[in-house]
Amino acid sequence: MIYLTILLQTPIDDANKFNGYLLLGYGVMWLIGMAYMLYLYSRQRNIREDVRVLQTLLENENDM
Predict the structure, then answer these.
(1) Residue 9 DSSP SS3
(2) How confident is the model at residue 54 (pLDDT cuts 50, 70, 90)?
(3) Which residue, of 16, 33, 47, 51, has the fewest CB within 10 Å?
């Protein structure tokens, strides 16, 4: 069975032509990772602002 799969494989003329696809894949994954990190940073900043507003509201409510 293994001999059949070896015989049916198509030869690769230039093995380096797939390096472009590899680099493209790494680039796309890097962009996705960076976009996700920016999204998490934005959410964390918004949550901190919400906590700060809630603390201010609680302090004002306790002063009354």
Answers:
(1) coil
(2) very high
(3) 16
Residue type, 35: A
Cα distances from 36 to residues 22, 30, 43, 47, 55, in angstroms, run 21, 10, 11, 16, 29
Lowest mean pLDDT among 13-17, 22-26, 29-33: 13-17
58 versus 14: which is more confidently predicted? 58
Average of per-residue pLDDT values in the chain: 88
Sign of CA dihedral 37, 43, 45, 48: negative
CA angle 17, 19, 23 (to 5 degrees): 140
